[in-house]
Fold this sequence. Notes:
CATH topology of the largest domain: Jelly Rolls
CATH superfamily of the largest domain: Regulatory protein AraC
Helix content: 40-55%
Number of domains: 3
Keywords: DNA-binding, Transcription, Transcription regulation
GO molecular function: DNA-binding transcription factor activity; sequence-specific DNA binding
Number of helices: 12
InterPro entries: Homeodomain-like_sf (IPR009057), HTH_AraC (IPR018060), PchR_regulatory_protein (IPR053142), Tscrpt_reg_AraC-type_HTH (IPR020449)
Organism: Faecalibacterium prausnitzii
Protein name: Right origin-binding protein
Shape: globular
Order of helices and strands: EEEHEEEEEHHEHHEHHHHHHH
Amino acid sequence: MTFHTLFPGLTLAFIFVNAPVWPESDENSNLKPLLINYCVSGRSELLLDDGSYIYLKENDFCVSEQTAQKEYIFPTRQYQGIKIYFDLPLLLQSCGELLKSFSLDLPTLEENYCGNHKTYINGADSELENIFQKLWRLSEKPSAFHLQIYTLELLHRLLNMEIRPPKTCGFYTETQVEIAKRAAQLLSGDLRQHIPVRQIAERFSVSETSLKNYFRGVYGQNISTWLREIRMNEAARLLSDTKRPIAEISEQVGYSNQGKFAAVFKKQFCLSPLEYRRSKNLGNI
């Protein structure tokens, strides 16, 4: 995560994460700022003041005045995005004339997006996406001038665009999130096992449909797709890091039929298990 202070009271961060958890900086975790989040890729879990959770997926943006949390959860273990922090009293005091010259009324922006529920989440329209992407392209070679200009352009767009009704399907309770995560642990704990979803739903006293909905909300995929990717990624790791026979690896990730395993593996990686192993071995020479 790289931080860029664009104005006193306005900080932009580029987020690059390859981990399930990322701690918030001590400085920001004590703030209660206005926040804008944008998801470039991956999936991010955000905890709200009322104890509920929202999940940003690719091209979603969120405007929030929630307390910044101590850490962020990334269910897919990979995330790229933009986060903008606003300390409005400081920003208005230090840059009030600049904002006024561009007709940027930030208290109105806060009221428009956060007045009712403190959090607004939606997919970015084409114009908003274009601005976020212009900012993102500066992540590798930041230019303070262009970061400032594009951030002001973003604020102008947010203030002048028609505000669509927020997404209503993105909010989940702590219990619903915990059920989804514990189901994921059960399903992936021993990949040789095939545990029926119905059995897991009964264990948590919820319907099978509810469990599937919670799971899709947290992980962004249905259970079968998620579990297949988990199995194939583990198989890829074993093929790369060990010399275990392919038939043994096939069984280790839950496939008694080696031919079916090879077909599923090739569909995900565009290489047969043997070809994948050879390519990795060549790369290590």
